[in-house]
Task: structure prediction
Amino acid sequence: MPSKNSINKPKDNIIRQRKSLRRSSVRPVSKDRVESSDKPVKSTALAVYSGATLRSAKNLVQHTLSNKRAKKIERNQKYASARKLNTDQLLVDLAAQQEGSMDIDLEGKPETTSKKSSKIQEGVVRNALWAVVEDAAAGTFNVTVSGDGTTLGGPSF
Amino acid sequence: MELAVSQRDTNILLREKNVLNPTVLDKYRLAGQVSQTCLTYLTSLINDSYHLGKHAPYSAAELCLLGDSYMKSALKNVYKNQVKEKGIAQPVTIDVNDVVVGYAPELDEESNITFKAGDIVTINLGCHVDGYTSNLAHTLVIYPPGVQSEDGSLKPTGPLLGTPADAVCAAHIASETVLALLGASLTPEKLPKSLNAGNSVTGSLIRSVVDSIAESFNCTVVPTSKVRRIRRFLAGQAEGVVAEREFKGVVWSEADQELRLLRQSSKFDEKDNQQIVTFDKAKNASVSSVSAIPSDEFVVSPGEVYMIDIKMAPSQTVDGPGLITLQAVDNITGKNHSNETFNPKPSVFVRDVAISHQLKLKTSRKLLTAIDRDLSVYPFKLSHVSSSFPMNLKKDISEQLKDIHKDMITARLGLSELTNRHLVITKPIQRARFLPLPIVLNTATSTGVKGFDAENPVLPGLELPLPRLGLTSLKLKTLLKSSKSVPVARELSTVVLNNGSNELIRLSGGSKTAKPSWVHSEFQLAGQYTQGISELIQLTQDARFGIKIKECQPMNIEFSSDATISGETEMQLD
Amino acid sequence: MSSSSTRYTCNSCNLAFAEPEDQRNHMKSDWHRYNLKRRVSQLPPINEITFNSKVSQLSISNSGDDQDIKEVKNNKQITKKEQRRLDKEALLLKKKELLELARKKMINSGGVLRVKSDGIQEEEEEEEEKKDEETNVVVVEKENDDDLTEEQLQEKLMEIKVKNRVEIPVTKCMFCNSDFKTIDENIEHMFKSHGLYIPEPNYLVDKEGLIKYISEKLGFGNVCLSCNYQGKNLQAIQQHILSKSHCRIPYETENEKLEISDFYDFTSTYSKIDGPDDDWEDLSGDEAVQVEDDEPPQEKLYSTGFELHLPDGTVAGHRSLQRYYKQNLKPERELSEGQGTLIAAETRHFVNIIDKDQITEQKRAWGREKKRDDINDRRAAKFINNQPHYRDQLLQ
Result:
């Protein structure tokens, strides 16, 4: 209990506010109820980035998009897409990452290149080896003996 | 604290000292002679005891001790004041059937074995004079007691048949072929055209030739087979320990088997998947120089000394395709709940000279000084440290054995600290195992590729046994509990490409000492290189116009096969 | 001396005053001061007339130049203490001169003068009286002596000396006069009871001579061995020596050593130049030694800034480099050819490979931890000095 001498006493106003809030019917909404992605984005920079705004030469607009902002948008879009947990996209993204530079559209579907990622490589290898196993089971790799064979050495110790 | 050698000294040690002068050649020849003689000695002992019945069967430990004693005593009296370091470069190891390397039991070893009929026994030894090494390995067959032949001598009942025979044949033919290839490199004009070699012998050529031989005999080249260039003091004795710069050689590993299987597969298009075929060895290697990583792109040049080490194991057909890998065996029982009967104690050790540490125990300090002073940088056994080590067979053997035993007990205590501090590395005893492919494919690949097996020394770039599948050596180790044993045949010889007289000096092996045992394999040479190989072999036998090969002959020494070690050894087994 | 009023008195002079002014004036006078002094010395006070007569007497009898200060004192020109001191000094001087003379005479004559035993009676003429006649007599005597010439003075002193001389036999202890049978017993006794140590006994040749010399210093010269105390006679010097424990033969400085060097023989030590000196240490030693001129002549003894090179080749190190001489560094590892080859061919990385991601992660973790600590500190700062039951003593 904070005493008269204590410095760490809560201030008057806070108590009053709390009490008033309790009395009132206004309740703050928790963040997780509201989906932020549903609201329209109030960002001119993003609008410029996506090209959503009407750009006409006549109207002078002051929407700006700095490089820093552009990069940030790019990154965030990446994260957003990752969050949506698309496994196929993950693979593709991995591959794209290994590529180097690739344009990320707003939709987020990059093209696949001829080179494959290590995971894909492994998959190929596995498939190939399974094929070997199957073929061997089928009997295609049986070694045939032809000829007399080889004899080394002679009948002596 | 890392030791470093000055640039000038490095130049001298690695280049100048490896130039083939007459003195250097003499030293090589002497080392070759001693190793050949030792092999003859040991084969005569085995013959006498197992085949001719003149003596009770020698156990592996006895053979090792006798062989080592011989080598050491033979090199004791030569070059007394000129050369500081000479002696055993590889202690005698007796590898039976599926054991590939490292089995060299001491006399008090529990797992001491004697041979049975039908075993294929590989004797591996080596010696050096002033760092110029001659290594040798030969596989011979133990036959059941012989039958009387017409001229009164005993002869074996029949040749060895079956898959071990395939391995023996393949190993022998492959090593002879590589030797011929290396000899031909001195005079490239004599290279058979059918080999498509051009004017030089490259590593990839050697690999393809050996692979074709292995395939034609339905065998697989066991991982850690190699054809490599050796130098003074760098004869492959510390391969996983020291990352030797300017490594020049062809090395076989599980990755090659993986590639071969991939190529066999119908679903694999090599042209499309070129980057799968070639993998980057330098990715995980922790070496400062890329030259330490073995690659196939090298050319055999004259004036070099090569070591041809081919190990062949028969491929299984019963269980389908699979991989042949190496499994380390030691005396720690109770692993993987398997009923393991063979629990040998690793007895070969190598000093890692780059490590230094202040030791606590007096015995370990003594042992370290003894190792640094007497035993050179080559692998050693604890019995070599003893003062009565090169046993004098003429004197009282039991006394000497007791002394050796006593010295060994004190040395063991010191050795434990040395091993813990990584001053001395234990060379593991490894045996070949066959892993069916489905088991391999069904394992999940771990995300981290840092799971290296520290127990198994490998060359710098080859830490990942199955790089395309992404399986680490530790992962593979866990799979080995469901593996099968396969017999292995091994042939190792050292050759000197003498550019002075354009001839190949064969320091170890050859028809006189490493004569192949009587085996019959149902396979025969096939594939694209058949003609080339046969031509090469013909060239080696042609004395006038062919490839000139000189062999180091064993010395004629009276071997008394009534060395009565076996009687006294019963006392020593504690 | 009748006290008419009880108010203003001077108790030391037995006076009484009617007015305070008079008292004050009297207090300031010399007479009163003198009476105060008399009171302090427990003497009865004198009246003014007597005082004035004394003063006049003093000014008449005063003949010396430096008596101005002493005029202030009543009839006390020189205090007893001062007088004694002056006498002592005079005697000392006389005795010293006499001793010198005696020495010279002895050396010249070679004989021993026999004198009758001590004239203590003369010395004990010192009285505790404050009679001026005594002092005057002494002063007169002094003056008489000064009239004589130097030589005659010395002769006179010498005579006194010779008269007072006591011959102490070598078998008699010179400090306590106890007799012994042999000289060795005497020496042993002097060592045990008085602590007289004879230096360098190994090189002593003339034991008797040394003892005689020492005893002459006491008996003839009456001078102390360790300090420069001059006694009047043998008894005095003996008493001094015993009481102050000065029974030692000083052997520190060169002069002291030379004094008694006649009785020693150090020739055996002179040949020690050739052999290696044990005193010098090799480079594990400490001090830089100064090259002294007294050392036997060296050829190659030189010192660099931090080392002293001795002629026999050893090098002594300076103590400022002691920490380096004490170091036990690991000897450089000598590699054999095989080992050298392997190390030359070695390409393994032995350094820890720095994982940048790991380091950044670690730095972030540290940063977060620090921030947490800061926040905690700020929060706590508000009530970290909270003392709920504090009772301020000032707020009673």
Summary: The longest strand of chain B covers residues 86-96. Residues 566-574 of chain B have pLDDT under 50 and may be disordered. Chain B has 13 helices and 19 strands. The interface with chain C takes residues 2-5, 9-10, 13-14, 17, 84-85, 130-131, 231-234, 238, 242-246, 286-289, 291-292, 353-354, 356, 372, 376-378, 460 of chain B (CB under 8 Å).
